[in-house]
Amino acid sequence: MANITRSSKSGSDWTPNELLAYNIRVVYQDFATFFGAQNLPDPQINNEVLIAQDVATVQSDDAYTFLRTMDLAMSTPPGKESAVNDFSVNLFRILRYTGSRAVGRVARTRKDLLFWVCGEERHAKADVCIMDIEDILILVQEDKRHLDGSDPEPPLIAQGIAAFYNNNNTRVRILMLDPLQSKVIPGITMKGTMPIFYKIPVTADLVRAVQLGEYPAQETIVYAHIPVVPRPARRYSEGMKPLDNRRVVLACYEAFKQFF
Fold this sequence. Notes:
This protein is an alpha/beta fold. It has helices at residues 16-21, 31-35, 47-51, 61-73, 84-94, 153-173, 204-212, 235-238, 243-256, and strands at residues 24-28, 106-117, 120-131, 136-142, 182-191, 194-203, 220-225.
């Protein structure tokens, strides 16, 4: 793999070849292994979101916006941009990932992240990210195979590398702190309303290898988890509309909070 040709690509153009070129491997884990827990937690969310099926009958703003953005995210016309980003931003709000003054976290869309690839400055654009005053905390990449056939995993991992690079720049140049040598960047890919969760370990050595276009001696293992829903074959066509699917996925989002 050390002999794979490396070229200066923006994050959106990364493919599985870039993962091989930089000694990165994705390993899928079950719920207990990935989250370090045996049981699904109760989602800390307005209960109406868990049981609502019809916007005409809901009472809360959270349930109404959840159902409306969910429907929009699952009804993308062929060849068109989807509403997945809008759904993700709203879901982060109602799950209290964002929106608290005490936490200071906000969701951004289309956040442009600069990083260096093979000696040239390139861009990695996050579909959605959560930021606080200092850091990019979590990344979301939509599965756009309905548009261009691209695998969402490599761009998400490129964004994780770029986020680590940008966070360290903030630490050194603004906060006057030492740079971190490693950090796990949480990430999510979204196909419709169904997520896959990732833990992306980024090191200063990996960032340097990407910058210089070199093969890292140390393998980077990215861990991922696909929520186990009652009807796996219809996972993406049903999304979070069925209440049993919804409870499982929202419980995974609740468990994912521990990583950022």
